[in-house]
Amino acid sequence: MAEDLNWAIGGEAGDGIDSTGKIFAQALSRAGRHVFTSKDFASRIRGGYTAYKIRTSTEQVQSVVDRLDILVALTQRTIDENLDELHDQSAVIYDGERSWEAEYPEYITGVDVPLKSLAEEAGGAIMRNIVALGAACEITNFAIKNLDEALEKRFGSKGEKIVENNKKAARLGQEYVAENYDLDVDYDLDETDNDYVLLNGDEAIGMGAIAAGCRFYAGYPITPATDVMEYLTGRIDEFGGHVVQAEDELSAINMALGAARAGARSMTATSGPGIDLMTETFGLVATSETPLVIVDVMRSGPSTGMPTKQEQGDLNMTLYGGHGEIPRFVVAPTSIDECFWKTVEAFNYAEKYQTPVYLVADLALAVTEQTFPPEAFDMDEVEVDRGKVVDDDTVGEWLDDEGRFRAHANTDDGVSPRAFPGTIDGAHMSTGLEHDELGRRTEDTNVRIEQVDKRNRKVDTAREQEDWDYREFGDPDADSLVISWGSNEGAMREALGYLDERGIDVRFLSVPYIFPRPDLSEEIAAAETTIVVECNATGQFANLIEHDVLERVERINKYNGVRFKADELADDIEEKLATEAKAQ
Amino acid sequence: MSSDVKFTDFKSDKQPTWCPGCGDFGTMNGMMKALANTGNDPDNTFVVAGIGCSGKIGTYMHSYALHGVHGRALPVGTGVKFANPDLEVMVAGGDGDGYSIGAGHFVHAVRRNPDITYVVMDNRIYGLTKGQASPTSRQDFETSTTPEGPKQPPVNPLALALASGATFIAQSFSSDALRHAEIIEQAIEHDGFGFVNVFSPCVTFNDVDTYDYFRDSLVDLQEEDHDPTDYQSAKEKILEGDKEYMGVIWQDEESVPYHETHGVTENMADIPDGAADGTMDLVREFY
Ligand SMILES: Cc1ncc(C[n+]2csc(CCOP(=O)(O)OP(=O)(O)O)c2C)c(N)n1
Ligand code: SF4
């Protein structure tokens, strides 16, 4: 119990919940503890309930569970919202001096700390959340020096005084609890010698982009993709790149397209509504055979839906969106470190096959922070493959009899040569109109077929050349097979442990490639029951799989806006398997 | 860049399918001449075209080129220039492409001030879709979709540009070959967004804004001794609206193009074949 701790701070948007939570998460990470955070936020800046939750352990944690041990409640609603997660070992830190009288069930331990007065004593009421962090350190026996380090990191740029005041605020909180309470609830947050980095999926995507050599990014702010742009801003410049905040998504994707045609590795990121706007240009990108990475960080739709809530509802859109038939790749990272690596891969696919690549993440991946050893992002492992680029010396091989560059040459593998502007004799036209090898408009029936086949052939080539595999967990010989994509991997991996405790063996495949994707027919044939787990109502991935294997699969769908929790998922799977067994 | 580049080097061997007499022929010839006269060659030039009869221009010219989707040519051109500031970037399209579906991009391209040249082939009609009203069509101009005229005033593109903070505003006439090429040349040489609205008559669908009309009504600013660096005078000419002008109306001599204000100088195509030096620092930041 003491090892695996769930902590949360909640209040109104504008109460500094996010930054306070992040400081604590960093302190835990500094202490060599694994951290997995989740956020519950409403789509408003001030007012409205918001919470930042941290799960921490010395073992790896990669999901949320339905249990809350320490809660810093800045409002009554914070307690109310989390009632069913609180238990008899839970402690609620609140400020009894504030205008509200905290109401909570008797079995919970209330820790009334005069957050505001102590903060004022330390130098300002604004530090009341830090007082609460100090109090939390005392309750969890967590060495406050780790918090000091996190405070230095957070406030270092604001000057020594601010840092000292914050440290004092934390100490006052700690001492107050030590002097006034003799608590029954007792937690011990051990430290380890491990070094960890703490980052979220959007940041991992941005970092992957820079590592892969992306130098141009154009985007338009939208939750939950904005962090990608904010991450790149200021950082990409150090590598000779540039970020533009475009006037809308139409402009963003077109700028990114222009930059890609000029030879840059180029990217844009958005969420569902932005993908809608980009779809016309997406067709142009594919038809003009321009390498481009388009990130869709999914949120709950349709329309503006629930902008701050989890969903995996855009899979069909990224697979099929756009008029006409367009080859594209769809890659969906399944964990935060994979957000980094799949971004690197996405750039290589885009340039090797001269196609747009959708990198599909979801809100749960994007806003969740998780600890990793820094080697998880080993830059020496990054490979950059620019594909068939010709230069002044090699362009000659691709000129026709009249010296014109065959930018859409009909090759065996479907991939044509690419000349960056500036290459002598490489000048050519690209267009969204159907075109011949030279890029010139045509309505010739044979050329049309030739070019459509050529573009589609790239997918066949990629199917052969690349490893479109899944990640496998659990018992490889189990009769029960669970398949998921995207952020569900973490919860599912942990659910395997719970199921194991109940004597249920499960084989779990987490699939990061949507198109092309691994052929799962053998795996499904070998299983008695196959369940596809995803955060949407209609089972978009399950439909795909059924289509591939011509066999019905079971589904577990969640679409209330909240990601899967490990314990809940284990229950769902147990229940599903039980009903299946009964039916047979 | 070679100095012996002729304007015909910018011509592709594809025969234009514009209607005989279309203003776009003259507009394009002037663009090619201006590119050659300013020392460019097809291998360092990027032409982005919109959709419309006007947008076909990219096909008839020879250079690196992209023919995009309707209304989005400016963002493409902007992206090209950002990624490689060494390229000469020219964006061309129609009045519908630029001031209707792409109007938002126009405003923002103008205020970003990238060092590109934007040529709008303004025929005050939608040509390619066969004769509907365009944003520059006159209030009483009868078309298939506006049988009694649009009944709303036309957009004043020059005023829109001025209000958005343009650093170069010019107007030209496709059939005045010499002046037209000169004006485009000045736009190319301008350090920043060189905007030229070109009257490029549609002989098939517009019987009002004809060659004769422009020939009779156009006032050449050069003959008026207009000083294009005089903002007040430019503003008056643009807003008074009772005369049609030709020539450079406004030029901000202090203009600093986007890539300079934002320190974008490198050709972004040049990247190492693995993660760049220093990328491990990006990871350490997350300690
Ligand atoms: C999204 C979209 N909507 C509509 C069209 C159809 N369309 C093609 S050209 C055009 C108007 C062109 O007018 P203008 O820009 O003035 O060019 P012109 O043909 O007169 O040179 C339209 C509406 C399209 N191609 N794409
Ligand atoms: S329809 Fe008008 S604009 Fe189009 S080619 Fe013919 S004359 Fe030119």
UniProtKB/TrEMBL annotation, chain A:
<dbReference type="InterPro" id="IPR022367">
    <property type="entry name" value="2-oxoacid/accept_OxRdtase_asu"/>
</dbReference>
<dbReference type="GO" id="GO:0047553">
    <property type="term" value="F:2-oxoglutarate synthase activity"/>
</dbReference>
<keyword id="KW-0560">Oxidoreductase</keyword>
<dbReference type="InterPro" id="IPR002869">
    <property type="entry name" value="Pyrv_flavodox_OxRed_cen"/>
</dbReference>
<protein>
    <recommendedName>
        <fullName>2-oxoglutarate synthase subunit KorA</fullName>
        <ecNumber>1.2.7.3</ecNumber>
    </recommendedName>
</protein>
<dbReference type="GO" id="GO:0044272">
    <property type="term" value="P:sulfur compound biosynthetic process"/>
</dbReference>
<dbReference type="InterPro" id="IPR002880">
    <property type="entry name" value="Pyrv_Fd/Flavodoxin_OxRdtase_N"/>
</dbReference>
<dbReference type="InterPro" id="IPR019752">
    <property type="entry name" value="Pyrv/ketoisovalerate_OxRed_cat"/>
</dbReference>
<dbReference type="Pfam" id="PF01855">
    <property type="entry name" value="POR_N"/>
</dbReference>
<feature type="domain" description="Pyruvate/ketoisovalerate oxidoreductase catalytic">
    <location>
        <begin position="13"/>
        <end position="173"/>
    </location>
</feature>
<dbReference type="InterPro" id="IPR009014">
    <property type="entry name" value="Transketo_C/PFOR_II"/>
</dbReference>
<dbReference type="Pfam" id="PF01558">
    <property type="entry name" value="POR"/>
</dbReference>
<comment type="subunit">
    <text>Heterotetramer of the KorA, KorB, KorC and KorD subunits.</text>
</comment>
<dbReference type="GO" id="GO:0006082">
    <property type="term" value="P:organic acid metabolic process"/>
</dbReference>
<feature type="domain" description="Pyruvate flavodoxin/ferredoxin oxidoreductase pyrimidine binding">
    <location>
        <begin position="208"/>
        <end position="453"/>
    </location>
</feature>
<dbReference type="InterPro" id="IPR050722">
    <property type="entry name" value="Pyruvate:ferred/Flavod_OxRd"/>
</dbReference>
<dbReference type="InterPro" id="IPR029061">
    <property type="entry name" value="THDP-binding"/>
</dbReference>
From TrEMBL, chain B:
<dbReference type="Pfam" id="PF12367">
    <property type="entry name" value="PFO_beta_C"/>
</dbReference>
<protein>
    <submittedName>
        <fullName>2-oxoacid:ferredoxin oxidoreductase subunit beta</fullName>
    </submittedName>
</protein>
<feature type="region of interest" description="Disordered">
    <location>
        <begin position="130"/>
        <end position="153"/>
    </location>
</feature>
<dbReference type="GO" id="GO:0045333">
    <property type="term" value="P:cellular respiration"/>
</dbReference>
<feature type="domain" description="Pyruvate ferredoxin oxidoreductase beta subunit C-terminal">
    <location>
        <begin position="202"/>
        <end position="265"/>
    </location>
</feature>
<feature type="compositionally biased region" description="Polar residues">
    <location>
        <begin position="131"/>
        <end position="147"/>
    </location>
</feature>
<dbReference type="GO" id="GO:0044272">
    <property type="term" value="P:sulfur compound biosynthetic process"/>
</dbReference>
<keyword id="KW-0560">Oxidoreductase</keyword>
<dbReference type="InterPro" id="IPR029061">
    <property type="entry name" value="THDP-binding"/>
</dbReference>
<dbReference type="InterPro" id="IPR011766">
    <property type="entry name" value="TPP_enzyme_TPP-bd"/>
</dbReference>
<dbReference type="GO" id="GO:0006082">
    <property type="term" value="P:organic acid metabolic process"/>
</dbReference>
<feature type="domain" description="Thiamine pyrophosphate enzyme TPP-binding">
    <location>
        <begin position="51"/>
        <end position="198"/>
    </location>
</feature>
<dbReference type="InterPro" id="IPR011896">
    <property type="entry name" value="OFOB"/>
</dbReference>
<dbReference type="Pfam" id="PF02775">
    <property type="entry name" value="TPP_enzyme_C"/>
</dbReference>
<dbReference type="GO" id="GO:0016625">
    <property type="term" value="F:oxidoreductase activity, acting on the aldehyde or oxo group of donors, iron-sulfur protein as acceptor"/>
</dbReference>
<keyword id="KW-0460">Magnesium</keyword>
<keyword id="KW-0411">Iron-sulfur</keyword>
<keyword id="KW-0786">Thiamine pyrophosphate</keyword>
<dbReference type="GO" id="GO:0051536">
    <property type="term" value="F:iron-sulfur cluster binding"/>
</dbReference>
<dbReference type="GO" id="GO:0046872">
    <property type="term" value="F:metal ion binding"/>
</dbReference>
<keyword id="KW-0479">Metal-binding</keyword>
<dbReference type="InterPro" id="IPR051457">
    <property type="entry name" value="2-oxoacid:Fd_oxidoreductase"/>
</dbReference>
